[in-house]
Design brief:
Rossmann fold, eight-stranded mixed beta sheet, 8 strands, 44% helix, disordered N terminus
């Protein structure tokens, strides 16, 4: 009965976007709010999330969420349950690309991030956010998604994680594939497939999206696309209705990426 009461008080769709205080996460949150969705801005720093919410305006709610901290994830889930009773849309966007690139160019960093020389501590740190963090948030939020009549999970990945593209010698990312960020996205794709398999027949949709090479802090602002362009496919998929597809891996505009 408590869930029904919350649903009546909150007829708008409720979304959680992780890593929402900057970059693609912030742009996606802006566009979801503009489309009438109440968006919880997940941010490791509540203060930065609060600033982002003020920038967006009504419909944006800051929420402290560190995807590498089980206590933070549990507290976020408890808050959503108490305030809304359900979750309609989960956008797993939070990610990091490295821990030691500094002022190095992407090419220079790539040379010290091969399978033979990448520090395992860095591999673990990046995977903790990009892979295990996504799985942890999924596990915590799934009961809330089950309370929705039209739930969708959108995991933000990258074409650099595609095994098919990277296995091809002439593939666009073949020479830059390594065990830190690229392989973390490959692992995220595998986690997403596991979610898709688990949720088959439940009505909860799961989609995998690449935002492209957008200029964000993730790549030291070396990207070739604007944040607006990089966010378009994430937003398109997030706004798919109950009849929209599940189990897809796409980039703008609805172009399939091989797994």
């Amino acid at each position: 009965m408590a869930v029904m009461a919350n649903e009546n008080k909150n007829p708008k769709r409720i979304a959680l976007v992780s890593g929402a205080n900057q970059g693609v996460g912030l742009q996606v949150s802006k566009e979801l709010v503009a489309n009438g969705i109440t968006v919880l801005l997940g941010s490791r720093s509540f203060e930065r999330g609060e600033a982002a919410a003020k920038e967006i305006g009504a419909g944006a709610i800051p929420l402290q969420l560190d995807v590498t901290d089980s206590g933070s994830i549990a507290a976020a889930a408890a808050y959503i349950h108490k305030e809304f009773g359900r979750l309609d849309l989960l956008v797993n966007n939070a990610a990091i690309s490295n821990t030691r690139k500094g002022d190095l160019s992407l090419e220079e960093y790539g040379k010290i991030s091969r399978a033979s020389n990448a520090p395992l501590d860095e591999v673990r740190a990046v995977w903790e956010t990009n892979v295990f963090g996504v799985l942890a948030v999924y596990q915590a939020m799934l009961p809330l998604l089950r309370e929705s009549t039209d739930a969708r999970i959108v995991n933000v990945s990258s074409g650099v994680g595609s095994l098919a593209l990277n296995a091809a010698i002439d593939g666009p990312y073949h020479k830059s594939f390594g065990p830190v960020y690229p392989a973390s996205k490959t692992a995220l794709n595998a986690m997403t497939l596991a979610m898709m398999v688990e949720l088959e027949g439940t009505g909860i949709k799961v989609n995998l999206v690449s935002p492209g090479f957008a200029r964000t802090n993730l790549n030291g602002y070396a990207g070739t696309q604007s944040v607006e362009d990089g966010s378009r496919e994430v937003v398109r998929v997030a706004l798919l209705g109950a009849d929209g597809p599940s189990g897809t891996f796409t980039r703008w505009e609805n172009a399939t990426i091989p797994w």
